[in-house]
Write a structure and sequence with these properties.
Structural class: mainly alpha
Helix content: over 70%
Number of strands: 0
Strand content: under 5%
Largest sheet: none
Length: 163
């Protein structure tokens, strides 16, 4: 189980780097757009891209920064108190997995509302762009969270198999 724990968190760390990369690119492009581009369509698109990009940077950083200490603590607990590890890690992962339902709902809302705004013929260009930005971020984040959710489900199965 120690190898599975380390593999799970190695993948979490990798995904956190991907989140930070998405976030950095999003923030830089959105900031550049807001600074240099006057077209309301692109300025509208930049707003949700910037906001979600900042969230991606923050979440990615937090996950990356805490992973080493978390792996060390969980590895020690697994070796010294396997029953406590199982109980506490299953409880923690239940919260993590519940969070994915919330994230998927938000991302799905971004996709649906974004698509609706983008397709509105009578909407101002700013709001059509805003919708495109929502659609873009929702479409990028949903697959990432689906992958993370699957990885978490497998990790939980491995924990549940412990005696």
């Amino acid at each position: 189980m120690l190898l599975q724990l380390q593999a799970y968190f190695a993948d979490e760390r990798t995904e956190s780097l991907v989140f930070m990369a998405f976030g950095l690119v999003a923030v830089l492009l959105a900031a550049l757009t807001l600074w240099r581009v006057r077209d309301p369509l692109f300025r509208g698109m930049a707003v949700p891209v910037l906001v979600v990009g900042l969230i991606q940077l923050g979440v990615g950083y937090v996950i990356h920064a805490r992973t080493d200490a978390q792996v060390a603590a969980l590895s020690a607990q697994l070796q010294n108190e396997p029953a406590a590890f199982k109980a506490q890690e299953l409880a923690r992962m239940k919260t993590v997995r519940t969070s994915f339902a919330v994230y998927k709902g938000i991302e799905g809302t971004f996709i649906i509302v974004g698509l609706g705004l983008a397709l509105m013929r009578n909407a101002r260009r700013f709001w059509r762009g805003f919708g495109l930005g929502m659609l873009l971020q929702g479409a990028l984040m949903l697959p990432a969270d689906l992958i993370a959710e699957d990885r978490a489900a497998e990790y939980v199965r491995q924990i549940e198999a412990l005696p």
